């Protein structure tokens, strides 16, 4: 069923056939390639879900071994890229570094750039998969390097091991060989990666599909998606939720904050969604992950404010009437804080897994026999047919 909708208020003029994610916003349903998000979060791993999203089926054992090996042998990145990242200011926002580094990667791989290697350079499955392995593999390394940069430490090299476990090794402060990330935290982040991997034609995925439709190289497409996700109304919302909860400070201040939201002086960050007009199914799972993380890291006090805020909002006619429910970002930031990540790193933790969804949409677009460059129309609201008259004497 082609979803074609046009709403002047939002200029949503996108029509796209896709078989990657199914969302029922009224019922709060999310499926990846037909599998429920609840079951994938419980039974799968992020890298297996990435395979499912990109290739359409869960991998056989042979496919899994090859895919895992290929991705994990592409986790290193060039020294020149490291040097470029080291040239950023000490306080550069990690997302700004991530977008720049991913875009810079296109200059390292001319063979993967249709502008240089020919319009059909992705037709060869081997060439296309090479980019998929490289981007999935290097994303956590770039992310970890941006984290190390912000704390003024040397960048860590990747080690061979589990995808998400390896990410922890590259982040670790101690950088000593005995460091072993806590298995509960590795699993918690892996589940969060599954939840953030794909979500149909959201703002950033639409950006990737727009760029892909111009046959822009995949690294620049991914950088474009990350640039969209950087926005506080999209992937930056988890960071914005933390700022909001910190600003509220105590449960006593919640009623006054809710009044400000009703007066449009504030937004309830982490609430609301263009598609979900019911509870975001991912938010329920994130809340469960939070409890597991707090068992290990200790309870994050902001969670009490978040839970009280949710209870009040869910019972307030204003939010009920506008169908505002917690979305995936409402609790994820509190978990990342408990795990010790700095707030400006949270959008990067959203970006790493969403790359799997972007790659799936890119590949799906390339295989679309009717593919055309995306060219939405506007509703023109300006003047028409005016005659020119000189307004000011110009010398
Ligand atoms: C993500 O699209 C995706 O799938 C995105 C995502 C993904 O996985 O890719 O799910 C990830 O981006 C989740 C959303 C994260 N952003 C936030 O939590 C920021 C806070 N949320 C809002 O900015 C807002 O809800 C959006 C941006 C998420 C959705 O905006 P819409 O669909 O354009 O909603 P809207 O602005 O039309 O809202 C309808 C009404 C408005 O009031 P009225 O004009 O009717 O009086 O609800 C109000 C809005 O003012 N409203 C809010 C609100 N969200 C909507 N009021 C207060 N706080 C909010 N959070």
From TrEMBL:
<feature type="active site">
    <location>
        <position position="273"/>
    </location>
</feature>
<protein>
    <recommendedName>
        <fullName>Citrate synthase</fullName>
    </recommendedName>
</protein>
<dbReference type="GO" id="GO:0046912">
    <property type="term" value="F:acyltransferase activity, acyl groups converted into alkyl on transfer"/>
</dbReference>
<comment type="similarity">
    <text>Belongs to the citrate synthase family.</text>
</comment>
<dbReference type="GO" id="GO:0032787">
    <property type="term" value="P:monocarboxylic acid metabolic process"/>
</dbReference>
<comment type="pathway">
    <text>Carbohydrate metabolism; tricarboxylic acid cycle; isocitrate from oxaloacetate: step 1/2.</text>
</comment>
<feature type="active site">
    <location>
        <position position="329"/>
    </location>
</feature>
<dbReference type="GO" id="GO:0005737">
    <property type="term" value="C:cytoplasm"/>
</dbReference>
<dbReference type="GO" id="GO:0006099">
    <property type="term" value="P:tricarboxylic acid cycle"/>
</dbReference>
<keyword id="KW-0816">Tricarboxylic acid cycle</keyword>
<keyword id="KW-0808">Transferase</keyword>
